[in-house]
Amino acid sequence: MSKLANYLNRYIIGSVFDRPSVCEAYRSDRSILEMTPRIIAMPENADDVRHLVTFADQLALRGYRLPVTVRGTGLDKTGAAIGEGMILSMEHMDRIEEIDLRGRLIRVQPGITLGALNAALGLHGHCLPIDYDPKATLGGLIANCPTDDMMAHTGGIYHFVERAEVVLSSGEIVQFGPYSPRHIATKIATSSFEANLYRRIDQILDEHGDTIVDRGMHPFDAAGYANITKIKQNRSVNLLPLLFASQGTLGIVTDIIMRIEVLPPPMTRLAVVLRDLRALLRFANFVVDLDPSILKLCDLRLMQTAAEQGKEIELLNHLPETGWLIVVGFNEPHRRASRKLKHCIDLLPVGTYVVEETDDNSERFDELNSALTCYLNNDGDGERLPIADDVYIPNYKFEDYVNKLKMLEKTLELSLPLYGSFATSNYTVRPEIDYTAVDDRRKAMMFLQQYGQLVRDCNGSLTGGSPEGRTKALPLNDIYTDAERALYTEIKDAFDPNHILNPGVKLGAELKNTLRHMRTTTQKGIITS
Q: Architecture of domain 2-91 in CATH?
């Protein structure tokens, strides 16, 4: 490996490392898995990425395996940001290259974080309106296409990306975006890898037309390569949608052109505590029609766990032992937001505990997020790491989902308070499991299988809010039809014929391989999501 690192360092501007201490630092992401890579590469530009990918592809042609895994800040919750080959850490490709305020367009590198981007755009009165972890990179947001809390209101990351520069598995650098049929005809007239890719995808669309139509009937599902349904729209051809939720298995984004928006008015929020599930549903269904920016809810047991660690929420005095906390927010002019909040309050039963945000208590509302951080970082024997976060449950099945979750708690003897967004129908539960203990690791797999079945029984999807990676892929193995599996395999083969880009992610997950790579060490740092 030292000879390999030295060789690669001659040909790129960035750096390649193989020191054990460096590789150990990249062995885990935010998932329940860990893998130690052979080498860590930190490219500085697209040419560096091209050299590194070309090298891995040429090795594969000679029978040597050095799979490539792209990594941002390592926040992936499904094991898709770790690998046993070469990690391409995009942390040095974090520049804002152009800002066009008049056209509301920016060009950025994929390693810039959401927080850093919005901090810079805020100086110009603009933003990228995505309510997600500010440490997430733009490349990571594209790769995972997660359902953020404002997605029902703003459309999410998919809605804002216009074009992207992509390094394909062959090492070619291409531009993905909407092209006219005439432009595509010019592209496929050549003998390049890109030309072969467009030809092969066109064949796949013809050969699997019925399967693609069926796939389009399940929009709340990021499994496989779901965006194959969006390639041909408005008389144009665009392969860029396939990269969303692909988790680095089809290509590596090195440059992004995206739209931005003018900073909205400050959000005005309302906190409500309801004991009864049906009262929650009546209230939430009414609020959804008002088009809120956020409509978050959580089981009050999360707040109680935080209180046990000293994180008392002054905004919420004398909480009941059971019930729900709902937070509603509107990014609208103050008068309009106030009218909507008044509508929300008028709907509530007499005596309901409710607090409207003011200048005096605004910071107290922020404590609610701090309470969730305390819950995720509790000091018990286990860790609250994600096994199957971000599931989609249709609103009409939410009551059934909660009741089945209570039964699962009794069956597995686990506490499973949930939190999420009613506006996006996206929910998370975090069982406390000691992954260093063999029995608990078995329990984790048992939870994954049974929880997956519970979600399906509620007409939901395990991958409704984020793709499957390595962990959520396991319960999906028996759900794919043969036609779906063939479709996704052929898409992967078209983009990555030598399977050097993040193999083992999305397709081909195996239980024994997952168990082999399950954590034996505790998570380092603070769990934030």
A: 2-Layer Sandwich (3.30)
Q: Are 69 and 82 in contact (CB under 8 A)?
A: yes
pLDDT score recorded for residue 380: 62
Report the pLDDT value the prediction gives residue 1, as an integer from 0 to 100. 55
pLDDT surpasses 80 at 217: no
Query: What element of type H or E holds 514?
Result: helix 511-516
3-state secondary structure 156-172: CHHHCEEEEEEECCCCC
In b/e form, how buried is each residue of 1-15, taking b as 16+ CB within 10 angstroms?
A: eeebbeebeeebebb
At 329-348, the pLDDT tens digits run: 999 998 999 999 999 999 99
Whether the Cβ atoms of residue 317 and residue 291 lie closer than 8 Å to each other? no
Q: What is the pLDDT of residue 369?
A: 82
Measured between alpha carbons, how far is 428 from 497 in angstroms, rounded to an integer? 35
* Of 127, 124, 34, nearest in space to 81 by CA: 34
- In the chain, CATH 3.30.70.2190 covers 265-375
**CATH number of 96-262: 1.20.140.10, 2.40.50.100, 3.90.470.20, 3.30.465.10?**
3.30.465.10
pTM reported for the whole predicted model: 0.94
Cβ atoms within 10 Å, residue 194: 19
Domain 265-375 falls in which CATH fold? Answer: Alpha-Beta Plaits (3.30.70)
Q: How many CA atoms lie within 13 A of 55 on its CB side?
A: 20
Residue ranges matching CATH 3.30.43.10 in the chain? 2-91
CA atoms of 128 and 148, how far apart (whole Å): 12
Query: What does pLDDT average to over the chain?
Result: 92
Q: What is the dihedral of CA 125, 129, 135, 138, to 10 degrees?
A: -100
The rounded distance, in Å, linking the Cα atoms of 87 and 12 is: 15
Long-range contacts of 396-402 (CB under 8 A, 24+ apart): 397/458, 397/459, 397/460, 398/281, 398/422, 398/425, 399/277, 399/278, 399/281, 400/457, 400/458, 401/427, 401/454, 401/455, 401/458, 401/460, 402/277
**Which residues have CB under 8 Å from 111's CB, separation 6+?**
72, 90, 91, 92, 93, 94, 137, 138, 139
Give CA separation, 524 vs 28, 58, 378, 429, 515, in Å: 9, 36, 13, 21, 20
